[in-house]
Specification:
Layout: H1 2-9, H2 12-19, H3 23-29, H4 33-63
Length: about 60
């Protein structure tokens, strides 16, 4: 929702509908839309770090 509509235009209702969840569940796990965004960003960053770490050994092997 954030990439399609932007942070401001992504509504809580649209986010939980896309997630197949409920507003109550969202607020149980997160304080609001900002916290959902931060959690998604952190997950995205972690995936990039893992991918980078997975590529590192191959690059070192090629140089040896």
């Amino acid at each position: 929702m954030f990439t399609e509509q932007g942070f401001t235009n992504a509504s809580i209702a649209a986010i939980v509908e896309r997630a197949g969840s409920s507003v109550g569940s969202l607020y149980h796990h997160f304080g609001g839309k900002s916290e959902v965004f931060i959690a998604l960003f952190q997950e995205h960053q972690a995936a990039h770090e893992e991918a980078k770490a997975a590529r590192r050994p191959r690059a070192v092997t090629r140089l040896a």
